[in-house]
Amino acid sequence: MADTPQRTIIYWLFIVAVLTGTAHGQLIENFYASTCPMVEAIVKQTVNTKVSQTFTTIPATLRLFFHDCFVEGCDASVIIASPNGDAEKDSSDNLSLAGDGFDTVIKAKQAVEAVCPGVVSCADVLAIAARDVVVAAGGPLFNVQLGRRDGLISKASRVEGNLPLPTFNVNQLNTMFARHNLTQLDMIALSGAHTLGFSHCNRFANRLYSFSSSSKVDPSLDPTYAQQLMASCPQNVAPDIAINMDPVTAQTFDNVYYQNLVAGKGLFTSDQVLFTNPSTQSTVNDFANNPGDFNGAFITAMRKLGQTGVKTGNQGEIRRDCTAFN
Ligand code: HEM
Ligand SMILES: *[C@@H]1O[C@H](CO)[C@@H](O)[C@H](O)[C@H]1NC(C)=O
Ligand SMILES: *[C@@H]1O[C@H](CO)[C@@H](O)[C@H](O)[C@H]1NC(C)=O
Question: Which amino acid positions bind substrate, per UniProt (predicted)?
Answer without folding.
Answer: 164
